[in-house]
Amino acid sequence: AQSVSQHNHHVILSEAASLELGCNYSYGGTVNLFWYVQYPGQHLQLLLKYFSGDPLVKGIKGFEAEFIKSKFSFNLRKPSVQWSDTAEYFCAVIKGAGGTSYGKLTFGQGTILTVHP
Amino acid sequence: EADIYQTPRYLVIGTGKKITLECSQTMGHDKMYWYQQDPGMELHLIHYSYGVNSTEKGDLSSESTVSRIRTEHFPLTLESARPSHTSQYLCASTLGVGELFFGEGSRLTVL
User: Fold this and answer.
1) Which of A25, A51, A52, B71 is the most buried (most CB within 10 A)?
2) Rounded distance, CA A72 to CA A74, Å?
3) Which of B88, B100, B101 best probes binding to A when mutated, by most A CB atoms within 10 angstroms?
4) Does the CB of A54 have a partner CB in chain B at under 8 Å?
5) How far is CA A93 from each of CA A16, A22, A79, A97, A103, rounded to the nearest angstrom?
6) What value does the CA radius of gyration of chain B take, rounded to a whole number of Å?
7) What is residue B83's DSSP assignment?
8) Which of B43, B46, B47, B89 to mutate to test the interface with A (most CBs of A within 10 A)?
9) CB–CB contact A100 B96 (8 Å)
């Protein structure tokens, strides 16, 4: 069965520190990849997505992620975090091309990011 | 801003009660989903629908049931709630081009 693994359950950083959250998936075929974020008290929302093309994807609020097919990874990065980035981050994968047209998202267990001012 | 609404946001009930969690979206999306989320765990898909009168069970077995009589409405029902049903339930919808829009969730506690 396809699975998604996020390496860290809880990451604590100070403002201006650099961030990298790991995400690995187990499916060997074509995949579409997503990062979702859930700010405290709010609903899950899309941060960025990769379908094809340039493996370096830029999302909202200065986040980016790099798809490395050989490593089955889609790590999330931000050069300088802010207190407002405190949230829970979920990596998600869908098998096959075409996004959610043809399948269902499989989520990782989430990483809680706490940023101290 | 996504237009998908879940009610109630919080519910505390006793064992054996029947409950329905409501989910409505005003975006005209065909595809709708219910996920179950426990703290520190991944979201698990429990039900999905690709359109009116279409419902399927997800990857995680659930005693809940769903219906899809109208495009905009995708309620989830537990006929007899138990403490093991205590969890957060998230509803989502999509047009099918990549992005899922989530509701704010319904946090259920069964005593």
Assistant:
1) A25
2) 7
3) B100
4) no
5) 29, 14, 24, 11, 10
6) 13
7) G
8) B43
9) yes
- Which residues face B57 on adjacent strands? B47
**Do A100 and B98 lie within an 8 Å CB cutoff?**
yes
Encoding tokens for residue A40? Answer: 């405290």
- Sequential DSSP letters for chain A: ---EEES-SEEEEETT--EEE-EEE---S-EEEEEEEE-TTS--EEEEEE-SS-SEEE-GGG-EEEEEGGGTEEEEEESS--GGG-EEEEEEEEESSSGGGS---EE---EEEEEE-
In contact, B3 and B27? CB cutoff 8 Å:
yes
Q: How many CB atoms lie within 10 A of CB B20?
A: 15
* Contact at CB, B42 and A108, closer than 8 angstroms: yes
Q: Which two tokens stand for residue B35?
A: 């996920």
Distance from CA of B5 to the nearest CA of A (A): 10
Query: Which residue shows structure tokens 């996504």?
Result: B2
Q: Is the peptide bond before B8 cis (omega within 30 degrees of 0)?
A: yes
